[in-house]
Write a structure and sequence with these properties.
The complex is a heterodimer of chains A (about 110) and B (about 110). Chain A is mainly beta. Chain A is built from no helices and 11 strands.
């Protein structure tokens, strides 16, 4: 069945440095790859997503890259700030409302050191 | 506008009992999905409802069931609770297709003792 693997499970970076989280997926028909951020006591929040027709997408300090051949995608956060501390989840799905089973990775706990 | 509302926020149940959790999606959202979140397993997909019909289902036993009402509100039910059912249950809504982004609720923390 579908599977999404996420690494690392924990990540600690100095404030101002960059953080990278990597995910691989098993279903070659996947074409939608969202990233969610979960803060303590809250539900996950969509921060950025990418579809298979593009290789990279940026939104201010956040960027996501996709390599469909290798079936992996990554989240890049530059100039990290204390408010970036949270758990980040990658996910993948085939897209299309009739196949809308979005499978999540196991999460990365990101800590920003002051 | 109001977000996704899940009730109750916390619940303690005894093994063998059953439980019903409720989710009110954002107004205008017709798709509601449920996930189980545990420290070891991350976010596991339970099922998705759209227009009162189950559109997708994850790999959970039949003890886990759900339904959606005509106003898009959804409930999930777990019968014959087991200790391993202790988890945060998250509801997420989207307008019609989750592949344009979910809005999650804050979840219901279920503890089975």
């Amino acid at each position: 069945g579908e599977n999404v693997e996420q690494h690392p499970s924990t990540l600690s970076v100095q404030e101002g440095d960059s953080a990278v989280i990597k995910c691989t997926y098993s279903d070659s028909a996947s074409n939608y790859f969202p990233w969610y951020k979960q803060e303590l006591g809250k539900g996950p929040q969509l921060i950025i997503d990418i579809r298979s027709n593009v290789g990279e997408k940026k939104d201010q300090r956040i960027a996501v890259t996709l390599n469909k051949t290798a079936k992996h995608f990554s989240l890049h956060i530059t100039e990290t700030q204390p408010e970036d501390s949270a758990v980040y989840f990658c996910a993948a799905s085939r897209g299309g409302s009739s196949a809308s089973k979005i499978i999540f990775g196991s999460g990365t706990r990101l800590s920003i050191r002051p | 506008k109001a977000g996704v509302t899940q009730t109750p926020r916390y619940l303690i149940k005894t093994r063998g009992q059953q439980v019903t959790l409720s989710c009110s999606p954002i107004s205008g959202h017709r798709s509601v999905s449920w996930y189980q979140q545990t420290p070891g397993q991350g976010l596991q997909f339970l099922f998705e409802y759209f227009s009162e019909t189950q559109r997708n289902k994850g790999n959970f036993p039949g003890r886990f069931s759900g339904r959606q009402f005509s106003n898009s509100r959804s409930e999930m039910n777990v019968s014959t609770l087991e200790l391993g059912d202790s988890a945060l249950y998250l509801c997420a809504s989207s307008r019609t297709d989750p592949n344009y982004g979910y809005t999650f609720g804050s979840g219901t923390r279920l503890t089975v003792v």
